Amino acid sequence: MFALPDIEKITLELVAQIPKGKVATFREVALALGDPIAARAVGSILAQHKHDCPAHRVVSFDGTVTDEQAQLLQAEGVPIRDGRVFSLSKFLFREFRSDKPLQKLQEIQNEIRKKMRLAPDRADYHTVGGVDLSYAGSLGVAAYVRLELSSLRVLDTQTLAQEVRFPYIPSYLAFRELPVMLALLQKLKDQDALADITFVDGTGTLHHRQAGIASQLGVMLDIPTIGITKSLLHGEPEKDLKTVAPGEICYIRIGGERAGAALRPTAHSEPFFVSPGHRVDLETALELTQCVLKSDSPLPEPIQHAHNASRRAAQALKHQTPHKTQQLGLFDKT
Q1: Residue 1's pLDDT is what?
Q2: Which fold has domain 7-99?
Q3: Is a pLDDT exceeding 70 seen at residue 219?
Q4: Is the pLDDT of residue 44 over 80?
Q5: Which residues are part of a known binding site?
Q6: Beta bridge partners of 251
Q7: Residue 142: its pLDDT value, please?
């Protein structure tokens, strides 16, 4: 597993570079991290560390500031009028010194994309797995559930808790949740306890770089994976999703090619999104997804079971002492 950058620490260091009498927008700080999509994450980090750096010097895209910011900025010579930095461009700081860590993570995703195999390498599947992750404070709790495909009977459940430090940034979810999932699935792979194919709560090819967490997990472990999400991260539906009928498949295109599909399981549920991750093609992914859908369920059974198991484990952890929590590993085997 590659070493992850400490985005929180780097963000605080970047903000510390903003001199008195200058401001930066959340977007400018995100650009210094390597991707403007991280602007919301920058805001979340600064909200938690208001007194650990000159966070008051980071303002909204239009210069809007809070009353507290206005007082601090005016004391530093930045004019405020009607709740905004007056003549924002004059006081905007952009000269950050940064190695742009998010761009390096994009390179990792691009390398994963080159290694993906979007073709099935087996004809029969007897077991299916599902992996999802919930949170208990700073801990990520991954759950893996293995089911018999023919009956959808749960065969076993495993969970693993591990600290998560990487913030949530759209299209970088893998770097937040992958370390926990990877640790759990690697142990199960070593025990020959993985299913024939694994459904992942996260996207595969329906991703800005067509290499979401389902693909990254699949490539790094060299296992067949299918991505399942409740919202569309990237791609264009072939029709209005509001018109998709129960049981109907609506393909999603990226660059003119079909990269995934939306599927509405019931009349009373929203569509979810299916995409191949690794060692499976789109049509096989859709066929298997339909096989693991129950008539009254909004999500495939492996994902639903994994979601429930991770939530139960996370709730249990919230009642553990910090000392016990740090020692938790695999547990809840059934």
Answers
A1: 57
A2: Arc Repressor Mutant, subunit A (1.10.10)
A3: yes
A4: yes
A5: 132, 201
A6: 261
A7: 97
Binding-site positions for Mg(2+): 132, 201
The 3-class SS string of the chain reads CCCCCCHHHHHHHHHHCCCCCCEEEHHHHHHHHCCHHHHHHHHHHHHHCCCCCCHHHEECCCCECCHHHHHHHHHCCCCEECCEECCHHHHECCCCCCCCHHHHHHHHHHHHHHHCCCCCCCCCCCEEEEEEEEEECCEEEEEEEEEECCCCCEEEEEEEEEECCCCCCCCCHHHHHHHHHHHHHHHHHHCCCCCCEEEEEECCCCCCCCCCHHHHHHHHHCCCEEEEECCCCCCEECCCHHHCCCCCEEEEEECCEEEEEEECCCCCCCCEEEEEEECCCHHHHHHHHHHCCCCCCCCCHHHHHHHHHHHHHHHHHCCCCHHHHHHCCCECCC
| Domain boundaries along the sequence of the chain | 7-99, 118-327
Pick 118-327's CATH classification: 3.30.450.20, 3.40.50.150, 3.40.1010.10, 3.30.2170.10.
Answer: 3.30.2170.10
Structure tokens at 231: 């919202």
Q: And the tokens for 13? A: 């260091």
